[in-house]
Amino acid sequence: MSGQELFGYASAIVVGLVIGLAGGGGSILTVPIFVYIFHIPTVLATTYSLFVVGSTSLIGSVHHVWHKRVDFPVTLAFALPSFISVYLSRRFLVPALPDPLFQFQTFVLPKSDAILYFFAIVMIIAARAMIRNDRPEQGEAADGHPRYGSLALDGLAVGLLTGTIGAGGGFLIVPMLVLMAGLPIHRAVATSVLIIAVNSFVGFLGDIHHTDSNWNFLLPFTGLSIVGIFVGMYLARFLAPDKLKKGFGWFVLAIALYMISRELL
User: Fold this and answer.
1) Which of 38, 132, 232, 236 falls between 20 and 30 A from 246, CA-CA?
2) What is the dihedral of CA 142, 144, 147, 148, to 10 degrees?
3) Domain count of the fold of the chain
4) Cα(245)–Cα(11) distance, rounded to whole angstroms?
5) Transmembrane stretches, by residue range (predicted)?
6) Residue among 59, 54, 53 at smallest CA distance from 28
């Protein structure tokens, strides 16, 4: 095993660590790790990301359910439309995208490059939210009554995002649960982890029909990520999450800029 591969497997622990500490965010690391360290094709990397994120988040969600932090009615309202959206996008939309995605005279945009550009843009948006530490205290549901219609529409949008780029979308889900459902931030994070877990698994199921996964690689990587989430959940009791979130935001921003510059050059 090369030094680069060892670094890639060590990065799996970081993915789980971030999810354990912040309740999300680790998913936006998996695709760059798979593409740039293990040289896995982009579309397959998004498939692998869904499995890793789903498995790791499931462990975290069991922990949150055990401690009664998850709001199940809100989870159901948000998750059902999201599940449908993510499954349909992985089952039909992503395979149906033409390759190249766009071509004009001598300019050609392959599907894999387009997905990476879109992923990098999402990373920049996520990094901005983490650096600014956007945590809305109230919104449409400030009266304590969840806006289930708005949650369902937002679930459709997040499902489409998850299905397209293979990221859980926790940085979008948490603010939506605060604004549209009136959840306290700790319950929003816990509920988000459960939604991410099932969303990711549903997306992965949509890929089984047309993907031959390398389980000899995927299972050890996922196992290390699960080790990371246990470490993260333990450290979360002692570390200030806001400062960690801001530092991780700068890290994500650096990776996004690296991805864009590498693809352009």
Assistant:
1) 38
2) 150
3) 1
4) 17
5) 12-37, 43-62, 74-94, 114-131, 151-179, 185-205, 217-236
6) 53
> For the purposes of burial, counting CB atoms within 10 Å of the CB of 165, is it exposed (0-12), middle (13-18) or buried (19 or more)?
buried
Listing DSSP states for 171-188 in one string gives: HHHHHHHHHHH---HHHH
Residue 122 near residue 25 (C-beta atoms within 8 A):
no
Size of the chain in residues: 265
Number of Cα atoms under 13 Å in the Cβ half of residue 9: 13
Quick check: helix, strand or coil at residue 97? Answer: coil
